[in-house]
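Chapter summary example.
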Amino acid sequence: MLLCIAVLPLVGCTAPPPPDFVTEVWPVWTNEVDLVGDLAVHDEVVVAYFQDGAELKIGGWEAVSGDLLWSFVADVGTYTRGIVLQPSIVEGDGFDAAVYLAPGRTDWNTGWNRIKAIDIRTGRAFDFEAEPGKRSSDSPVSALSAPSRCDDEPSAACFHGRMGDNAVPGPLRLDLETATLELEARSGIPADARDLGAGIYSTNDRPPTGVERLGYIAEGEAQWEFDYEEVFGRGFSSDGGWSWTKIGAEDDAILIGWGGPAQDEKVLAATKQIDLDDGRLLALEADSGELLWSIEGAGDASCRAGQISAALVEDVFPVCVLKSGAAMFGDDHLLERIEVEMGVRGVDVRTGAVVWERWLGSDPSNYNSTVELNAPTGAGEWRSVHDQRGWHSLNVVTGAMTDLDEASIVMCSRQDDPFVPDWAVERDIRDSGYNSGEIRFPCTLDLLPTESAAASVGALRQGAAELDGEVFVVKSAAGLVAYRLE
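The structure predicted for these 486 residues follows.
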């Protein structure tokens, strides 16, 4: 294990060289399409939602040529509008499929959809049994969460919802290997439990009639369950947000989770303000729920240097730590983070011991100061950060940091306009928009768009979706843009 001692200034760490942010890379194709939500990429195919007039559609593009392979009308379902829209791709023996919601029949009640699975290369629809004696095209589904690949099975999509008018909501599983959509058997778990990811769930019980519980499911059974406040602390609830990651194999897995207090009174106030340093990051043994470590003041997703793919984590987990800061929600529904004082820390995944630490101060470039502009980081090890000395490239696994050249091109983003379904437009319900994610673009270190469409190798690795290590695709204001590394 490569270890860096937590001393400031941090020295002596070695790491792979940082990405090249100077060498320009030009687009190989651009598709002018009004993309909605985040991209899903798999095996040289890009799958995404897009808006075509008043309709929401889902389409698949060949990554090398940019050719549209197929497209179909889609729907958003009834799940939380704050969740970014994104297709889910499942894979099995001889197939790769995109799972999505499609409009229901005109004689079905509002809120009911079909769930569909489409071969990402051909657009061929998979048929499956949704209810005894009913094929998928004839069975209505009410999706209360977005269908996504199941944690325990890559060939299946899981979501919370119900089938049939009188059905109680519960966990549903679409398994393309068995060609079935059915209520998932979960022993000891309430049907209305909230899925928090990585096998973690929370119950829907709240004071004064009940107490929220936090639990973990594996192999269809609850492994343990505790009071939510017993795990996170007094006043904490999944209503205050969550993020969970599973590290390691099931027999030795660690669950790392972020949580925040409910703060109902502040959220409901005229000027809605939430203290960002109230959050907590902790690690639990997956098999027992035993608390391994806890960090108060851990940042949420507004600090991108603290986000990482579980595949990159072995011994060290990056976390943003805040000394102060607040998020304010105005009546115009815009979010602004103010007075943030933060740093990035690498901690041992099993003990929580500090391996390295970098304090970045209060520069808003390191977090989402507003919804308008920020510097994204992607899922790799290297992130662009800023302190009083200027811009740097930080390796969030090792803690190594190097200065960025003034001519560097990084990847910036701004919040995309929400997607407003046609039914909301017809009823003039404009605040019913669904989260459409980000628009990304190459930018200078002043966080201004470059005069050309050229990106850099580092910018692509930082903020683009990667296919086969050569082709990178970006959701931009111009549409779907692809770059190729020679």
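To summarize the output: Confidence is low (pLDDT under 50) at residues 1-13, 369-373.
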